[in-house]
Design goal:
Helix content: 25-40%
Distance between the termini: 14 Å
Number of strands: 14
CATH class of the largest domain: Alpha Beta
Largest sheet: 8 strands, mixed
CATH topology of the largest domain: Nucleotidyltransferase, domain 5
Oligomer: single chain
CATH architecture of the largest domain: 2-Layer Sandwich
Strand order of the largest sheet: 5-4-3-2-1-6-8-7
CATH superfamily of the largest domain: ATPase, nucleotide binding domain
Radius of gyration: 21 Å
Structural class: alpha/beta
Number of domains: 2
Strand content: 15-25%
Number of helices: 15
Shape: globular
């Protein structure tokens, strides 16, 4: 059974086609710069890699381009769209309503729309992908795999905030959690690498990409998570501020005569590393700026790594000890400097990196242990595979239909 997975970002469409149940990836790729000038697709299949430039002013146009590549006689992997049995979508925010992946129908679409207010950078784009498939592949079953689903196990004393309880009752204000598909995947793989039952393990998983989140995993389930009511809380991120004194936005709004929408845009799109450096959110550019002596780039690196280190300490305490730390996602998999700085000074917790192993683990190509032989806590780099998780969840639902 062939299953297509889609992960629609603000200016990209990531896709993969799997043959299930053997989880064979037939092809994968990424459409870059969607809705921007200079759009292009990178398409990879066994025996060939292709780059094709074509303007994609909308996500629907990008998905149409993906479909063209899937069925192309030379570059494709299927003879016709009828060979594709279902499409699985990454959806960022499903609130506490969805504890698992579900078939997409009108009620699910309405819920995703309602939660768009809490994930304004993500849910509307996820919906654009769902609607594009509805138009281009009419009648095909579609499945929503929610980032928030992994975190429905977080207990109330962890997910509630110190605000009037009525806000939770009326507006469902609580900690939700994001990047759940990624955290769920790498936590499962860490258990395999440790040769232990997930229920017997305490893990801390760090998803470090443009968005950054940290999860405390207790007995195979999420216990705490750095993101909150929205993906804005937590670590310093590419363009998001992360944790801050809630009085700061009100103070600046009065000083600068800003609306609440203005401030929300600043905190989501113009803060974090972008705000600190004044130039970049891409860690590769920041590291190059550091090498060139840029002090603000160095400061942004120090701030980011300090916040991550602080979360590791806090979650070790919350879990009552930790068996393994996992780094994943673009920066977590590729930047040995970030991993080195984050783990610096954590030897008292039993966390000690092997400098050689850490430096060799670049590019995110394979699962690697980077802890020293003397480290009581194992430290891993595990490339995330959200696409496989989406395909597996979609197949499980299709098989039960």
């Amino acid at each position: 059974m062939k299953i297509l997975t889609l992960n629609c970002g603000s200016s990209s469409v990531k896709y993969a086609l799997f043959d299930m149940p053997n989880s064979q990836k037939l092809c994968h790729g990424l459409v870059h710069r969607v809705a921007l000038a200079g759009s292009f697709i990178e398409h990879v299949k066994l025996g060939g890699e292709y780059i094709h430039y074509q303007e994609c002013p909308t996500h629907a146009a990008a998905i149409q381009l993906v479909i063209q590549f899937l069925i192309d006689p030379e570059r494709g992997v299927v003879g016709s769209l009828s060979e594709i049995r279902a499409v699985g979508h990454r959806v960022v925010h499903g609130g506490a309503q969805f504890a698992k992946s579900v078939f997409i129908d009108g009620a699910v679409i309405k819920a995703i729309e309602e939660y768009s207010e809490l994930a304004p950078l993500h849910n509307p784009i996820n919906l654009a992908g769902i609607r594009a498939i509805t138009d281009l592949m009419s009648g095909i079953p579609q499945v929503a795999v929610f980032d928030t689903a992994f975190f429905t196990a977080i207990p109330p004393h962890v997910f509630l905030y110190g605000v009037p309880y009525e806000w939770y009752e009326k507006y469902r204000i609580r900690r939700y959690g994001f990047h759940g598909t990624s955290h769920r995947y790498v936590a499962g793989r860490a258990a395999v690498l440790l040769g232990k039952n997930p229920e017997a393990l305490n893990l801390i998983t760090l998803h470090i990409g443009n968005g950054v989140s940290i999860t405390a995993v207790k007995g195979g389930s999420a216990y705490d998570h750095s993101m909150g009511f929205t993906p804005l809380e937590g670590a310093v991120m590419g363009t998001r501020c992360g944790d801050l004194d809630p009085s700061i936005p009100f103070y600046v709004m009065r000083k600068e005569n800003l609306t609440s929408w203005d401030m929300e845009t600043i905190l989501n799109r113009k803060s974090g590393l972008q705000g600190i450096t004044g130039k970049h959110s891409d860690r590769r550019e920041i590291l190059r700026m550091m090498d060139a002596g840029d002090e603000r780039a160095k400061l942004s690196f120090e701030i980011e790594c300090y916040r991550l280190r602080k979360y590791i300490g806090a979650y070790t305490a919350a879990l009552g000890g930790v068996d393994a730390i996992v780094f994943t996602a673009g920066v977590g998999e590729s930047s040995f400097l970030h991993r080195q700085k984050v783990c610096e000074g954590l030897e008292y917790l039993g966390i000690k990196l092997s400098s050689q192993r850490n430096k060799q683990a670049v590019g995110g190509q394979k699962e690697t242990e980077i802890s020293s032989a003397r480290s009581r806590v194992k430290v891993f780099v595990i490339p995330t595979n959200e696409e496989l998780m989406i395909a597996q969840d979609t197949f499980a639902l299709i098989g039960n239909k």
